[in-house]
Write a structure and sequence with these properties.
Blueprint (H helix, E strand, L loop, with lengths): L12 H31 L1 H9 L2 H4 L1 H24 L1 H25 L2 H11 L1 H12 L9 H21 L1 H10 L7 H20 L4 H7 L12 H9 L2 H30 L4 H16 L2 H11 L1 H20 L5 H29 L5 H30 L1 H25 L2
Organism: Nonomuraea monospora
Protein name: MFS transporter
Pfam families: MFS_1
């Protein structure tokens, strides 16, 4: 008579710490190469769609396609993680991005923009993998270090985001020298970057952090393959996770709405491309460079206070942007604060989501969080364009400020009411 299977032995704490350090290094490496793939692919996507379709309106769908892809792939990535661990989820996301790059190369060769948009939807898997990687960093983290570990992986994406666009032109030249049509080279290079990310995840993310964390979890329930329905049920019964998810969505919507329309505003004010590029670069620096500091602060002072700080920074950014007029320095200050506020919302909110739900339900809830985050971001871009087109950039700052203020007040009020 065979005995019932026993739960794997829990590793000693010092071994868990060593595994966690290795996990952070592997995830950071995947973030760097995956970030290069995302940035290289997106650097020319709207330009290529514009050339193939000969329509400025259609070219705007390039960014929408990748955001839509990131949203659509968030739940499959989470489901794969729930079934087979983080390796399965992350490799699925990066493989989808690899396939999207291959389709994009084919579409450019065939001069067909609808096929290119379809490829860009799959390229959004790179962003889905990048978002899922930050959650992977928390599976083995002590509770008092979860935000710091998450923020380190977020910070690693800075390298790929900054380096990627600068590699687009050399990749195009190399691609043409190898026989590819013009502007297909960057997508081929992005495909190689995503392939390398898959190799890094599959070969080096061992042992799988989520699987190991589950082995040490008490009395795991049957929720390993949780669906979106169960994720909603978990949020309804977990007020803290619900608060964190709302603040992540609000922070991302505010950031994307203002950031997406700022280049248009500066262009209409007469700023040249160098000025616009500098403003956006400083904004990106605000998003990522100080994320380890934000993570340390969230672990020391608490996640909710950092979420409140993020709301204050976003509100200040909206006020500065809405009253900037033609003052470029004020717009620049607004975009830097916008990036810092987004970093507070993402890092503290993601850590709070993770620590508020059981280990077995985390992938589903985290996937739902990324889905809502991307949907809200895409919606915010569309609504922001309509507001600026009809009412002006100042009214956009006012509307974003009202949204952030209401959510921040709600967070504080609910926090004080909760025992």
């Amino acid at each position: 008579m065979t005995s019932a299977p026993t739960k794997p032995a829990v590793s000693p704490p010092d071994l868990i710490q060593r595994i966690q350090r290795r996990t952070l290094v592997v995830l950071s490496a995947a973030q760097i190469v995956g970030g290069v793939g995302v940035a290289v692919g997106l650097a020319l996507s709207s330009v290529v769609v514009d050339e193939l379709s000969r329509s400025t309106v259609i070219s705007g769908f390039a960014g929408t396609a990748t955001v839509l892809g990131a949203a659509l792939l968030a739940l499959p990535t989470a489901k794969a993680s729930g079934r087979g661990g983080r390796r399965a989820g992350l490799s699925l996301a990066y493989t989808a991005a690899l396939a999207g790059c291959a389709i994009s190369v084919l579409a450019i060769s065939l001069h067909t923009w609808p096929l290119l948009l379809a490829g860009l939807v799959l390229v959004g898997g790179g962003s889905a993998g990048s978002l899922a990687a930050r959650y992977s960093a928390t599976d083995l983290s002590p509770k008092d270090r979860s935000a710091r570990h998450l923020s380190l992986v977020v910070w690693a994406s800075t390298i790929g985001s900054v380096a990627g666009p600068n590699l687009a032109e050399p990749a195009d030249r190399i691609g043409m020298s190898l026989g590819l049509v013009e502007k297909a080279g960057p997508f081929a290079f992005a495909a190689l970057a995503f392939a390398l990310a898959v190799v890094v995840i599959l070969c080096f993310l061992r042992p799988d952090p989520l699987t190991l964390a589950r082995a040490g979890a008490p009395a795991a329930d049957s929720g390993r393959n949780r669906t979106i329905r169960t994720a909603w049920q978990t949020l309804r019964s977990t007020p803290m996770a619900r608060r964190a998810l709302v603040m992540i969505a609000v922070s991302h919507t505010a950031m994307v709405s203002v950031m997406s329309m700022t280049p248009v505003k500066l262009h209409h004010d007469g700023s040249n491309l160098d000025v616009i590029g500098l403003v956006i670069s400083l904004h990106i620096a605000g998003m990522y460079v100080l994320s380890p500091v934000v993570g340390w602060l969230a672990d020391k002072a608490g996640k909710v206070p950092v979420l409140v700080l993020g709301s204050a920074l976003l509100l200040s950014a909206a006020a500065l942007a809405g009253t900037a007029g033609h003052r470029v320095w004020q717009v620049t200050a607004a975009l830097v604060l916008l990036g810092l506020g987004w970093s507070c919302g993402l890092v503290a909110g993601s850590a709070l989501v993770t620590e508020s739900v059981p280990i077995e339900r985390r992938p589903a809830v985290q996937g739902l969080s990324d889905l809502l985050m991307n949907v809200c971001g895409a919606t915010g871009t569309i609504v922001a364009g309509a507001i600026v087109g009809l009412l002006g950039y100042g009214m956009l700052g006012l509307m974003v400020g009202i949204m952030v203020a209401l959510s921040g007040l709600w967070l504080i009020t609910v926090r004080h009411r909760t025992p």
